[in-house]
Amino acid sequence: xxxxxxxxMVDLLRPLGYKVTDExxxxxxxxxxxxxxxxxxxxxVFSELGRLRQIKEYRExxxxxxxxxxxxxxAQAEGKIIVQRAPYVDVVLGPQTYHRLPKMILEAxxxxxxxxxxxxxxxxxxxxxxxPEKAQGHTAFLTIQEGCDKFCSFCVVxxxxxxxxxxxxxxxIDEATRLCELGVKDISLLGQNVxxxxxxGPDGNIWDLVKLAEKxxxxxxxxxxxxxxxxxxxxxxxxxxAHRDLPTLMPFLHLPVQSGSDRVLKAMNRGxxxxxxxxxxxxxxxxxxxxxxxxxxxxxHPGESIEDFKATMKLVHDITFAQAFSFKxxxxxxxxxxxxxxxxxxxxxxxxxxxxQAVLKDQLTQFNHEMIGRKIPVLFTHKGRKEGxxxxxxxxxxxxxxxxxxxxxxQEHMVEIDECMTFSLSGSLVKESTSH
Length: 436
Ligand code: 5AD
Ligand code: SF4
Known about the structure:
InterPro entries: Elp3/MiaA/NifB-like_rSAM, Methylthiotransferase, Methylthiotransferase_CS, Methylthiotransferase_N, Methylthiotransferase_N_sf, MiaB_methiolase, rSAM, rSAM_horseshoe
CATH class of the largest domain: Alpha Beta
Bound molecules: 5'-deoxyadenosine, iron/sulfur cluster
Number of helices: 12
Catalytic activity: N(6)-dimethylallyladenosine(37) in tRNA + (sulfur carrier)-SH + AH2 + 2 S-adenosyl-L-methionine = 2-methylsulfanyl-N(6)-dimethylallyladenosine(37) in tRNA + (sulfur carrier)-H + 5'-deoxyadenosine + L-methionine + A + S-adenosyl-L-homocysteine + 2 H(+)
CATH topology of the largest domain: pyruvate-formate lyase- activating enzyme
Oligomer: single chain
Enzyme class: transferase
EC number: 2.8.4.3
């Protein structure tokens, strides 16, 4: 979602004459878009700010005024601390106020001292964002829902992104249509609880994710739809059936389970059991047998015993994941788990995480290996690193390379997979392939 937000900030600043540069030394405005989900991500902000300060000082010595803005969830949660620890920061803005960025940049350029906006505004930022003018390529993110009301014990999202809110259907259709006109073929719908989507439809009714995805499927050029991140409790039967019935819905699902122990799930306030998770996965596999599964795991949540951890390992062995993200529990300010007396010791968390990650890596390798000899549709999105090579994505979100002409970029073609590396596949174009 931060990638999406960053792109929208670019759209907002373009009318002021700004363009994106890859070289920080050339930038009149440096924006750090930040993440507060774990302590590691937050600490990075301050080390990165030290680097940006040097650039700002160097540029200003050359007579080039330079502004530093900190955006995103660290700005939301720690705005005041940021300007105390790093007073050279000019602008601080939370994830719900970035539509005000142009005004804040102009204000900061005029005066000395910081400009801070981290309230939750009554207006929706989406009503103030211009239509995208440039797509980054043939795949794009599109935020359809933001915030969360679930309050898992470990999570800062309800505090930083705010309450759950769905964008109206028409606004999403307009944005998706615009992206497709710009050449996008594969859209990932984003939300902290994306499958809880319930937006105002053009017919006056509330639309769910299924209805929205069906409508989006009619947009010319849009051949692939994905959505992330989902909560098991919002995995409706209709959504599961859509994985069978809607050809544009890709056979890939990121469905975080966090733990394989009912005791821990309860302590996490997740609102579902291990059995319910298995049942959802069973139904999904029946609806779409080739569905590739992904998940998030937290290791060492307060109170997690070795038996609880073993239950998580069992779940991983039973279900098998095509990919997964796993993290050591990181206490976050303001969350209920952070004040629990039963914190798990760091070395214990390290050992458990290592054990889990070894199995998840084997499963990922296994999943990729099973592709060898298969013919799969690949949406080509970019030139490969090697001469004459092009790269793209499989329906299962794997990176795939093949020898092929650059003119095929932006098209979907069948590729026969013959090799599997750790994080990518390679193969050759199937002659009688059809493009979409
Ligand atoms: N510690 C570790 N991991 C966390 N996540 C969220 N909060 C924490 C935390 N305090 C993980 C969850 C979530 C993913 C986005 O980040 O697994 O699904
Ligand atoms: Fe955080 Fe997801 Fe739980 Fe919401 S449902 S509190 S975003 S982990």
